[in-house]
Amino acid sequence: MRHLLAAEGLDRDTITELLDTADGLKQTLLGREVRKLPTLRGRTVITVFYENSTRTRVSFELAGKWMSADVINVSAGGSSVGKGESLRDTALTLTAAGADCVIIRHPASGAAQRLAHWLSDTPAAVINAGDGMHEHPTQALLDAATLREKLGSLEGRRIGIVGDVLHSRVARSNVHLLTCLGAEVTIVAPPTLLPAGIDTWPVTVSHEIDAELPSLDAVMMLRVQAERMHGGFFPSAREYAIGYGLSEARAALLPEHAVILHPGPMLRGMEIASRVADAPNALVTEQVANGVHVRMAVLYHLLASEGAESA
């Protein structure tokens, strides 16, 4: 694996190998007072975030540091990007300075792919930490790791993805990855928040959340991405909560074994009720914890595994 740019195109064996590696790393670190492995000693990992982030950025930084890499964070506001430097020149500058891996989050769909193209003559790996409304592959991997940990095999499991699918790179990556692992995915959203071409996705589509919840093994609530919305996609926050929010009454419709996920940050009271978000079957904090181990696994396969240099 040369880069990780998208969940689409990953085959089942590769996904399973990444998840197994993440689980192995998690077990290795379990109970250790000092969470430090020498795996990436001497490697330099640089994160370049053109959008705000807490979970993704912190977990990538921890992943690199727990594997003994040197991790450097670059933000658009505090770099030459603020002076007008292009993404291409920024990337070439970072690799010339010695970056072995560039992790990028960018508001433009396809930015990670362009970056990988520009760096094709260098040994640096590129990881997509979210590009516009396109993909967020490591989020899908950590969601799958969390579901697999709680539900076992995902073969035949029914997973509901609810909310702002139109603007969600998380939804796109999860559809590709979860269906590849054999899950049956149901998209639940108002018509205004469904992307064009969704009829070509390997999913079923519903507008009635109450009708779908009783048959789900897991439900993934999405963040309403107001920053990407230009125009009215629903009447009000209250109307959205009434139609598609996961209230306590709705959560009670889920089977006893079902689990609840959210990529964060959560809009409590709109997307999900506070008591539901804090319930024992809500795995939001587990997702964050698994995110570190999944991103460690990705860094390992790109920078340390056999064949990483020549892949």
TrEMBL record:
It is an enzyme of class 2 (transferase). GO terms for molecular function: aspartate carbamoyltransferase activity. It catalyses: carbamoyl phosphate + L-aspartate = N-carbamoyl-L-aspartate + phosphate + H(+). The keyword Transferase applies. Pathway: Pyrimidine metabolism; UMP biosynthesis via de novo pathway; (S)-dihydroorotate from bicarbonate: step 2/3. Keywords: Pyrimidine biosynthesis, Transferase. It holds the Pfam family OTCace_N. L-aspartate binds at residues 83, 169, 223. Residues 2-149 form the Aspartate/ornithine carbamoyltransferase carbamoyl-P binding domain. Its EC number is 2.1.3.2. Residues 156-302 form the Aspartate/ornithine carbamoyltransferase Asp/Orn-binding domain. Carbamoyl phosphate binds at residues 55-56, 105, 136, 139, 264-265. InterPro entries: Asp/Orn_carbamoyltranf_P-bd (IPR006132), Asp/Orn_carbamoylTrfase (IPR006130), Asp/Orn_carbamoylTrfase_sf (IPR036901), Asp_carbamoyltransf (IPR002082), Asp_carbamoyltransf_Asp/Orn-bd (IPR006131). Heterododecamer (2C3:3R2) of six catalytic PyrB chains organized as two trimers (C3), and six regulatory PyrI chains organized as three dimers (R2). PANTHER family: ASPARTATE CARBAMOYLTRANSFERASE (PTHR45753:SF6), ORNITHINE CARBAMOYLTRANSFERASE, MITOCHONDRIAL (PTHR45753). HAMAP family: Asp_carb_tr. Belongs to the aspartate/ornithine carbamoyltransferase superfamily. ATCase family. Catalyzes the condensation of carbamoyl phosphate and aspartate to form carbamoyl aspartate and inorganic phosphate, the committed step in the de novo pyrimidine nucleotide biosynthesis pathway. This is Aspartate carbamoyltransferase. The lineage of its organism: Bacteria, Bacillati, Actinomycetota, Actinomycetes, Pseudonocardiales.
